[in-house]
Design brief:
Elements lengths: L7 H9 L9 H9 L1 H20 L8 H46 L1 H16 L1 H27 L11
Helix pairs in contact: 1-3, 2-3
């Protein structure tokens, strides 16, 4: 490793301030032409300075007010989504209870419905395997739809991968 040069700091300052080589003193330019440490420092500093000038427009940072506002909007949306989950569960359970109660009242008071239930019971007894498959399908289909909707909402497909596109 080369030893540090006493003019290296001046060369770096001139290069980082975009004064190299035109705006630098003639003695400093002459020294850089003979010193390996300073010539490498000038080359690296000019390269980094050029990259900095090239990348500066691409890295526009939004003002703090906009960042704060967007963070508040996101927090509000997340709070609303978190509050909606229990409400949706309670509404679903209430609908299920109301449907069950309505079905029980209808079944207890309707003669033709009771006769139909007796015929269906006899049919299920003679086709038990088919009835069991149908029950499993009826119970698992809503669960499968729920899981598919949840995965669509998170943007993942089985295996945790995001869909292409």
């Amino acid at each position: 490793m080369a030893a540090a040069c006493e003019f290296e700091a001046e060369v770096l300052a001139a290069a980082m301030e975009s004064r190299w080589p035109e705006g630098a003193e003639p003695q400093l330019r002459e020294h850089v032409s003979t010193c390996g440490v300073c010539s490498e420092a000038a080359l690296v500093a000019c390269t980094i300075g050029g990259d900095r000038d090239t990348l500066r427009p691409a890295g526009a940072i939004p003002d703090s007010g906009r960042v704060w506002y967007l963070a508040q909007l996101r927090a509000r949306r997340e709070a609303i989504a978190a509050a909606d989950r229990p409400i949706t569960i309670v509404q679903t359970m209430a609908l299920a209870c109301a449907t069950g109660l309505l079905g029980a009242c209808f079944g207890a008071t309707s003669g033709w419905f009771q006769a139909t239930v007796e015929r269906l019971t006899a049919l299920v007894a003679s086709h038990a395997l088919l009835a069991a498959g149908t029950v499993v399908l009826v119970l698992l289909l809503p669960v499968a739809i729920y899981v598919a909707i949840q995965q669509e909402g998170t943007g993942t497909i089985s295996g945790g991968r995001r869909p292409a596109g």
